[in-house]
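We were asked to recover a plausible sequence for a given structure. The inputs and outputs are reproduced exactly as logged, with field labels preserved.

PROBLEM: sequence recovery
POSITIONS: 486
GIVEN STRUCTURE:
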């Protein structure tokens, strides 16, 4: 069971599995090279510090946007602090920097030597020689011992994967462990809120998730003495809102050249179901080349977008023209729908947006994303946890039919759950018109796809389906409470 780990007033909540693993690595009988990565603001640094109880032999954090010489100065200052040297010696290059680190570590008494390099990607500036020096430090010194515990961390997930986990150079297969830290699930959010005295209902927790996506840093800024509506106005729309500029800070901290990444997510924000590669190119006017592929890959690795095959696509290992890219980061979706739309800088923009057409369009769409993020809980409720599945969408190829389905769970057992997701304030009532619409969707889907699988209509709602003459069309249900399961 994956748990969260968070602290407020020294109260610990969760991430117990991750804590246990890190502590085991720290006390193993061999040298360890551990990479921890995940989306910015997800709590990586805090987890590592708590697991190590801040008992580091050496700890340094890369400086965002700094030059090679500035990074070396920062490294030297940290080394002086831990070695208690009377003078500051600034190395000329990274080879010498890591050599000085090894010399210092050799003076320490027996026992685990915990080395924590935070925001490692920021230290790898252009033509700095940082990676070869790190390779040399590990391969020629650390790995020959049994007491070195090197922990590296970074929010630039794509950099961490390409340069460490999938390294083809001197660090190939050198990592002993890598750990991805994910945002909280709804169950973990509820544990957090209950532990820290919030009185939010589950529906309010879902709405908070639709805004913040279970990111611990954002949640830590909530004030339990205020309603969720008040908190959102305070954090995003007030005069000195602490998260007003989070969008630019987030993307520019993750990517060295963030402009194309921002252009891609801007394009995807206009199309909820996603865009093909060519459609993104058409909207952004970016060049179709290898760099564009890197941009898409980096956004996917960092959890901002996902790629998937529509049901009518054959898929396969290679990207095809039908592959869709979809924006899935909750905060980014909220930014484009509300923060960017607040042209008049209204400090109560969230309060006045409630129950507007803008709010209803966003909430329905964001709830779909909540369901997608909790596919495991949905499968558990449907009793198909052990069945191999893929989640996809479908849109009729015949424009006159106008039929589309937001989420299908395509199963290996010759069944497809056709999922309709409805975010409402009361039990959802199926009208005669909506029943006819559902029947049309199912018929068009079966006809166009020539399906030989059975179709099972599944409604995912906040408070369930209200029984009436038309509710019998529903074959299985998932409600909001089911999404809070571990």
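RECOVERED SEQUENCE:
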């Amino acid at each position: 069971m994956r748990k969260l780990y968070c602290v407020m007033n020294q109260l610990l909540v969760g991430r117990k599995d991750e804590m246990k693993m890190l502590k085991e690595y720290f006390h193993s009988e061999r040298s360890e090279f551990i990479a921890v990565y995940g989306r910015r603001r997800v709590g990586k640094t805090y987890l590592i510090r708590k697991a190590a109880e801040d008992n580091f032999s050496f700890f340094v954090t890369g400086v965002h946007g700094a030059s090679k010489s500035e990074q070396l100065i920062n490294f030297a200052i940290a080394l002086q602090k831990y070695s208690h040297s009377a003078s500051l010696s600034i190395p000329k290059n990274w080879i010498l920097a890591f050599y000085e680190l090894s010399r210092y570590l050799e003076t320490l008494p027996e026992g685990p030597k915990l080395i924590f390099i935070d925001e490692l990607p920021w230290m790898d500036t252009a033509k700095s020689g940082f990676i070869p020096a790190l390779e040399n430090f590990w391969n020629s010194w650390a790995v020959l011992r049994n007491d070195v515990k090197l922990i590296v961390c970074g929010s630039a997930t794509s950099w961490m994967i390409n340069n460490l986990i999938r390294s083809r150079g001197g660090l190939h297969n050198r990592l002993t462990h890598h750990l991805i830290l994910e945002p909280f699930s709804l169950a973990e959010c509820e544990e957090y809120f209950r532990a820290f005295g919030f009185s939010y209902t589950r529906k309010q927790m879902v709405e908070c998730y639709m805004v913040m996506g279970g990111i611990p840093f954002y949640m830590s800024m909530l004030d339990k003495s205020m309603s969720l509506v008040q908190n959102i106005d305070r954090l995003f729309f007030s005069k000195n809102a602490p998260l007003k500029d989070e969008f630019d800070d987030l993307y520019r901290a993750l990517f060295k050249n963030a402009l194309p990444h921002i252009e891609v997510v801007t394009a995807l924000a206009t199309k909820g179901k996603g865009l093909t590669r060519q459609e993104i190119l058409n909207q952004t006017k970016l060049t179709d080349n290898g760099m564009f592929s890197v941009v898409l890959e980096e956004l996917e690795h960092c959890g901002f977008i996902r790629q998937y095959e529509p049901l009518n696509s054959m898929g396969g290992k290679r990207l095809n023209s039908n592959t869709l890219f979809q924006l899935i980061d909750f905060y980014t979706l909220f930014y484009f729908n509300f923060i960017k739309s607040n042209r008049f800088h209204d400090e109560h923009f969230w309060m006045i947006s409630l129950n507007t057409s803008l709010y209803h369009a966003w909430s329905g769409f964001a709830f779909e994303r909540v369901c997608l993020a909790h596919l495991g809980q949905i499968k558990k409720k449907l009793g198909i946890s052990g069945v191999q599945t893929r989640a996809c969408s479908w849109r009729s190829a015949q424009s006159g039919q106008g039929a589309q389905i937001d989420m299908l769970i395509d199963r290996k057992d010759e069944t497809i759950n056709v999922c309709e997701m409805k975010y409402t304030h009361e039990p959802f009532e199926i009208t005669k018109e909506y029943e006819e619409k559902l029947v049309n969707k199912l018929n068009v889907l079966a006809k166009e796809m020539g399906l030989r699988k059975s179709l099972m209509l599944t409604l995912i709602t906040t408070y369930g389906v209200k029984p009436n003459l038309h509710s019998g069309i529903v074959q299985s249900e998932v409600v909001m409470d089911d999404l809070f399961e571990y």
